[in-house]
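Try this one yourself first.
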């Protein structure tokens, strides 16, 4: 017995080393694919260019509220991702199909923006663009759902931090490249032809990812279940853990996106920032994110994702107060925010995905991910949309405190911070439990 106990750890290490060797190429190919399907879109959505497009089409704070909520309602695409997995019974086939769907939507949006050159059509194009951009975000959510489930099916639990570390580091580097590049391009080629070219680039990147990168990643068969039907073949709705996670995602999404919706507008109006300067600030966040991912990636395989996730989320939520303090201390507060906020972005995406993979059962994982994010996303969209109407309604709001004037944007930042902090309560209620 003693000999067996002594050799078991060695055998486990050897098995882990063999599995790592088999997965090394996969994490590189998947990371490069993530750059093409996600880094571009994240760099675009997190930057100032969507705000510039909406304003060029004649939009106001109400439309910026819709724009800020689009990322949340994009979670509707997670349901379609689960459906594709069930129909194809292949992570690889589902992902490639989702990329071709993304190509079609990006091409359609490119053509729509070209029509923006016709001034008389802009009032009609604005709602069409917001609706099309919402569907485009849903496609991105569908792709994300498939890829997250793919990682869960392909990579053992104790290797997920090691695997996703490199994947997300590559993704962040792509984000840095595209966020600055897109903003700089838009500044050099202002107008609807330039905006249309950005979406045409998205379409081309989806084609590359579908034809070159994801076909090289090892396939894995998904363990699918249905949303409705017999209890033995559908997800478990009675789990309190599931509903606490839905609430956590809702609060975090609403709090963060309520602030995100007006950050670019605030920088442009208050500090007269150009598109490139706003993108450079966003890039500061992502540069910090690379450092954090590198530092904690492998360690999460030992710690688990929950504790570092809670710690970083709380710090990021508190850092949102710097937008309020900028009324007194200026742009330095916002620069500090983006540096401290490096814990967010792809770092929190990595930890959040890994935590979901820990908590949800392997059977039906994609369906649990899809439904939890869809419910939180739709409710979050409604709440962020309402915030846009409120901010527009109080557009003349001014409040003088300690000799400095606070505007409607400061009120939105403060409300978002409080809601984001409340998102930690569900984690405390879940504790160390798993479904």
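Now uncover the answer:
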């Amino acid at each position: 017995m003693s000999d067996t106990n002594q050799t078991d750890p060695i055998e486990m290490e050897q098995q882990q080393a063999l599995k790592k060797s088999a997965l090394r190429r996969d994490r590189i190919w998947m990371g490069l694919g993530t750059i093409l399907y996600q880094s571009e879109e994240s760099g675009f959505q997190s930057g100032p260019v969507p705000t510039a497009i909406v304003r060029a089409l004649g939009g106001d704070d109400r439309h910026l509220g819709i724009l800020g909520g689009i990322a949340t309602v994009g979670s509707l695409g997670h349901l379609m991702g689960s459906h594709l997995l069930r129909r194809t019974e292949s992570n690889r086939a589902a992902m490639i199909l989702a990329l071709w769907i993304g190509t079609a939507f990006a091409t359609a949006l490119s053509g729509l923006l070209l029509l923006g050159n016709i001034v008389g059509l802009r009032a009609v194009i604005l709602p069409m663009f917001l609706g099309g951009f919402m569907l485009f975000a849903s496609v991105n959510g569908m792709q994300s759902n498939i890829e997250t489930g793919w990682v869960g099916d392909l990579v053992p639990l104790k290797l997920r931090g090691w695997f996703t570390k490199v994947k997300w580091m590559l993704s962040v580097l792509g984000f840095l490249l595209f966020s600055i590049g897109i903003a700089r391009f838009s500044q050099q080629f202002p107008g609807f032809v330039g905006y249309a070219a950005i979406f045409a680039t998205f379409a081309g990147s989806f084609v590359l990812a579908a034809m070159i990168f994801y076909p090289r990643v090892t396939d894995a068969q998904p363990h699918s279940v249905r949303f409705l039907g017999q209890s033995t073949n559908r997800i478990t709705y009675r789990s309190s853990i599931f509903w606490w996670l839905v609430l956590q995602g809702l609060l975090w999404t609403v709090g963060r996106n309520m602030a995100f919706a007006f950050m670019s507008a605030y920088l442009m109006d208050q500090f007269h920032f150009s598109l490139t300067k706003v993108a450079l600030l966003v890039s500061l966040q992502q540069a910090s994110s690379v450092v954090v991912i590198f530092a904690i990636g492998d360690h999460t395989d030992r710690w688990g994702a929950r504790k570092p996730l809670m710690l970083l989320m709380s710090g990021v939520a508190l850092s949102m107060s710097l937008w309020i303090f900028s009324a007194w201390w200026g742009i330095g507060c916002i620069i500090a925010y983006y540096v401290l906020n490096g814990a967010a972005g792809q770092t929190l995406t990595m930890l959040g995905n890994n935590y979901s993979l820990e908590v949800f059962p392997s059977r039906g994982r994609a369906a649990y991910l899809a439904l939890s994010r869809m419910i939180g996303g739709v409710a979050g969209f409604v709440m962020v949309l309402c915030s846009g109407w409120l901010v527009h309604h109080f557009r003349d709001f001014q409040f003088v405190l300690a000799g400095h004037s606070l505007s409607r944007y400061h009120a939105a930042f403060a409300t978002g911070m409080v809601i984001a902090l409340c998102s930690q309560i569900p984690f405390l209620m879940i504790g160390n439990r798993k479904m």
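Discussion: The radius of gyration is 22 Å. The first strand starts at residue 398 and ends at 401.
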